[in-house]
Amino acid sequence: MSSIVVPKLKAKKKLSAVDRKRRRSELWRRIKRNKMIYLMILPGIIYFLVYRYLPMYGLIISFQDYKPYLGITGSPWVGFTHFERLFTSPEFWTIFRNTLILFALQIFVYFPIPIIISLMLNEVRHSLYKRGIQTLIYIPHFMSWVVIVSISFVMLTLDGGIINSVLESLGFTKINFLMSAEWFRPIYIIQVIWREAGWGTIVFLAAITAVDPQLYEAAKIDGANRFRQIWHITLPAIRSVIIVLLILKIGNVLELGFEHVYLLLNASNRNVGEIFDTYVYVAGLQQGQFSYSAAVGFFKGVVGLIMVVIANRLAKAFNEEGIY
Amino acid sequence: MKQKNQATRISVGSKVFDVINYTLLGLIGLITILPFIHVVGSSFATSAEIASTRFLLFPTKFTLDAYRFIFSTDTIFRALGISVFVTFVGTIWSMFFSILTAYGLSRRDLVGRRALNFLIVFTMLFNGGMIPTFLVVQQTGLLNSLWALIIPVTINAFNMIILRSFFMNLPQGLEESAKIDGASDFGILFRIVIPVSLPSIATISLFYAVTYWNTYMHAILYLSDSTKWPVQVLLRQIVVLASGFNYDGTAYTDVPPPEVTIKMATIVVATVPVLLVYPFLQKYFAKGALLGSVKG
After folding, report:
1. Shortest Cα distance, chain A CAs vs residue B79, angstroms
2. What is the CATH number of domain A81-321?
3. Cα–Cα dist A223/B288, whole Å
4. ipTM score of the complex?
5. Residue A155: C-alpha distances to residues A2, A162, A172, A220, B229 (Å)
6. B192 at the A interface (CB within 8 A)?
7. What are phi and psi of A225, to 5 degrees?
8. Is the pTM of this model over 0.95?
């Protein structure tokens, strides 16, 4: 790209004043010709400026002691005080650890499941059966987290929940799943799997359709059984897609789902469940520490941005070398 | 002879593989869907059956008590009405601005197109976060208004990009011939581009609609007035928070049905609309999701 731009810039310098003027009027003509198009995108651009960029400007309150009645222009500056408070508070390390553990669960427990299911679906020869299963496993993706968590609650609750009834009838003692710190993480990741694993197969199934069927025929003649066919043909074919998605997932390390975690949190699991988003919500909107929680959000946003940019670079590098 | 043996062995192994694979997939599908069936089944059950039956999927005695109870006050009607309003108005609002922006940015001859694209894509990578966004919503006077659930999420950058890349893939000749015939840019968009893009527009509309129906976070952030809560917030109040059920309190004078069935019924009411559009979603969504994953 840069190799194209550079000579253009050099050429521009050599242009005479007349040429430059002509060029500018040409540009102006092109803009004027599309004035209706600019009118079309104007509301959209205004939306992004007001509700997306103005909050970014608002992040400067994390260097202030923001008071609602003083506003952004009137509030006193405090430098990095809020960031210092964040990094020295014991809560920071709790949140950091919680984030890392939930993230590890996402990578090591959740991530392989859609791959395995799509490999299994690919082996189904009756398309009606395959489509039937797909229809069923995509459904939870369209349910809100409130619905997912609510259904879990009524099933896991201590008195009358179906899971505890089963445990009891099998001779086990009941477990207070919802009020226990140990069960927070398993419940979190099971809900993630329930809601997203089916939907997550789509991209892998699409990658599999690109595999040449003749490869399977050849493998069959060579006596490869179904597992070997999967291992040596299907998996290598979707390897680059797996790598790209894994990298992108790592890039989104901090996106663990505010709604989901917030719905699960209560007094007895806060210690293992609190993540940056829920901390911002409680400190900012419930306790009114606007500046401090904006600083926490700012920190989270910057780390997230760096991770996403690195991840995207890596994904692109892999994609170019990959099979496609 | 040996070869034939091997061939039959492979096909036997293959058959065993198929049986196991089909069974496991069937189980996965079943596990995914059983909680929903359990909830729907329980919502129609009587209190006696809830107390005695352990593995309830389909009640033997069918009753509408739980539904009669939750619809005996206006609480759930109001919440449903708000959700329907936000879903309809929000989807139309979002689609209107998304289509305009997506079509504008799909025009290759637009000066500044790359910069504008970057302006939008960057918001997918970084945002001001919860607190500064809250302050902007407050400053623009949306707090405690239902528009707070719509205006701050007018355009989903992801959906807009899917639409834009669809418009860009339309044949160029389509627009050019219309231009020669003297059609204006708005004329081209509304009379040519939109009619030929209806499947994609339907897909993105359904994505927006599901998001609006499921809206929860913005409601708890921006609406403190409980009479303006959409159904998702009400559901959370009833199922997750409620220690004692308190729909309205006074209106119901008979003995209320068991708490459990009321919770189940409320879940069903909050879920059914999404299940109703699900067949339509399914028809188009794989395409949309794929486009998204390529672009994202």
Report:
1. 15
2. 1.10.3720.10
3. 39
4. 0.86
5. 59, 5, 17, 46, 25
6. no
7. -80, 180
8. no
